[in-house]
Amino acid sequence: MFTVIRNWWHERIVKRSAISESQWNQAFAQLPLLNGLTAKERAQLRKLAILFLHYKSLEGAHDLVISQEMALTIALQACLPILHLGFYWFDGWVSVIVYPAAFAPERVYMDEMGLEHRSNAVLSGESWQRGPVILSWEDSQHAGIADGHNLVIHEFAHKLDGLNGSANGFPPLHKNMRAAKWSKVLGEAFEDFQYKVSRGAYVTIDTYAATSPAEFFAVLSEVFFERPDDLHVLYPQVYDQFKQFYRQDPLARYISPIDSP
User: Fold this and answer.
1) Beta carbons within 8 Å of 176's beta carbon, 6+ residues apart
2) In the prediction, which pLDDT does 145 show?
3) Does residue 148 contact residue 204 with C-beta atoms inside 8 Å?
4) Which CATH superfamily is domain 2-253 in?
5) How far apart are alpha carbons 94 and 56 in whole angstroms?
6) Domain map of the chain by residue range?
7) Would you state the torsion angle of the CA atoms of residues 81, 158, 244, 229, taken in this order, to the nearest 10 degrees?
8) 215-230 tens-digit pLDDT
């Protein structure tokens, strides 16, 4: 009964949306990443983006004003990973904080000796387990050009990963998926990638993926949607696991940026 009521309410929200057709067309045109979607998928992504903008609060930091165009750019990219999963995968949090550019939050932490240290590393994005997603607009506005790097997908992949309690590269799997298979495939690929990076081998994937299983999952999620051919060539079994998890096959719809209209 709850699902029926929620679906009815979601349809009501979608029907009341004030976003014009021209605004949608402009938003999709600015994101070559979405070129391969079918008409049915584009319609579904629009619905998810409307729900995203209804339920999530996009807040500009440092006096940044979030325009409708900016909001749509972020929402469409954020919802692509849940296109065939459902909006409830984004339950449990509200805020998306957008900085004009990279930011450097000051952090205090203790080392093993109990000494206090301060850190202000420069970041382009963050995803807190049950807190906000934080994005740099400078790194988000052109993220959907299908070059293999996508900050928005990266941070929202962390959100999905963290649904099991912590972001560790092991998101909640569907009933038809085997946890042992996921662990074996992703674990072996991660070890292989770390080995390649440590040896200075040329790889087509951002070496940041070698820092932890969580970052491996997030970076490879970027590649899965942006450059599926790269992931399929390097780690075909990982591609297959991602295809089952996201319930999408970007390689089948992939249009390279060179061939895009």
Assistant:
1) 244
2) 86
3) yes
4) Collagenase (Catalytic Domain) (3.40.390.10)
5) 5
6) 2-253
7) 70
8) 999 999 999 999 999 9
